[in-house]
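Support request, please re-run this one:
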Amino acid sequence: MDDFGKPGVYILRDKSEKEDCKKNNCSPEEEKTPSCLQNLKYYIWEYCDTYQKWVHSPVIVTFATTQTPIWKIPFPAVTICSEIKAKKSRFNYTDIYIKKKKGEPITAKEEQEFEYMSLICDTPKELLNTNLTTSDQRAMDFLMEVAPDFDKMMFRVSWRGKRYKNITDLFTPILTSEGLCYTFNIMDRSEIFTDIVTNYRDSFSTFGKVSKYSIQSGYDPDATLDSYPRRSFIASIFGGLRVLLSIPREDIDYACIDAMQGFKVILHHPSEVPRGKLKYFRVPLDHSVTVAVKPNMMTTAKELSDYKPKDRRCYFSSERKLKYFKLYNQQNCLSECLIDFTLETCGCVGFHMQRQNSTPICSASKLKCVIGARAIYLANEVKKKVRKVNAESKDKIKDDSGEKCDCLPACNSLDFEMERSQAIWEWKEFLKIEQEVGEWNSENVSLDELHFARVVIFFKEMQFITSERNELYGQTDFLANCGGLLGLFTGFSFMSALEILYYLTLRFVCNLRKFGKHYWSGSEELLEKNKKLNNGKSN
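Re-run finished. Output below.
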């Protein structure tokens, strides 16, 4: 970059030029001409810089000028998955695993059920039936059947300080890559998935709870304090969710999931599908975990809807339609592309993936292909982004609007950040006290037969600051900047333009009529000469 971009140089050059003119006895016109050319040159330079910003960086992300209260957004959906995948009274994965490792005979039923369990357990490939490439709904039926009982897993639940007796009304059963999980505050499947998606039984069904919230407009005007999805009003434990979890000691399995015990918890937006392999935290047995949640919200000004998505770098929900999901967001878009890529690569999809009725379900022996397809897909996405960045840096910008998996972020989005702490929980002493005061009846359950854990989730603060996408330079701003630069460097303004227009039109026509075509300029000197000539002729 040369010196023209540095304002300090303008003054130095201007002074040096004037000094040179004084030394060389320049006329006022000669002294003024270089400064005008220099100023015009500086103006053109600054104009080009402003134009580049207007074209290539039309959007700026800033913080909102006012804070948003937490009651304007829903409480995050909370998905809880047990690391115990099967009740040992129904299916003992460890026993079958040891028998197959030792080469001992098992029944055909045990073989089939072992294949089903291997969909969610880390089973070595040599123990699987490689001839079986696809599965069916019986696999999902089995996983639902052997999963831990809901009423035993959810020992006690409190929401906004109120303890609920009918816990089933608070949670929705969903089938994920972790097996059967339960979600608090998720929207109904009719609001998440399109009509072509095949839903398994009651998975993702809220049983009639209708949402009165959208990410674009917030809660409906007629929404009450208890409208769905649920929201909090207090930034403390008393305004959040508190869940006591339990599992029988006899059901603990050390072969299925690398001896990991406890629970996986996923926080996500109520309109999103939880991804158990991506974003979660663990709740170990005999521990209490406290999670303070901070919302991370992005909004986009309506004025940006006139821009192309690639310029503002986001999609409005009405601009991009997905095949499996009703709501566009970046995660849903990536998931949909991964599903299609997995189907193309493996000829089937994972049992937990969204699919059409005719789409085959991959068996346990094909899980390696499913995992490999995911790795290849993510690597390809990274390569595309690198190529795109390199192309932009060389000004070879390609219009990728026709690209199938151009998964830009959503223009309006809501995510949740977490601050987590945990400590050992002396739950036995706690429950003994509750038993003494009659809060808990342990006639049918011995404390030595159970493991407990607790998770508490709440908003950290009463308000949060939203990020906003706005126009950096609108058309009015661009014209104002250009006009300001023109006035700064050349003294030219809108009034100057009107004066030029006046002298070229109205003044010119009036002078023609008044003084004739030979004296159209109206110069006093010419008019005086003309008057003397006329007086001379008359004499």
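The chain has three domains: 1-56, 66-471, 495-539. Residues 495-539 form one domain.
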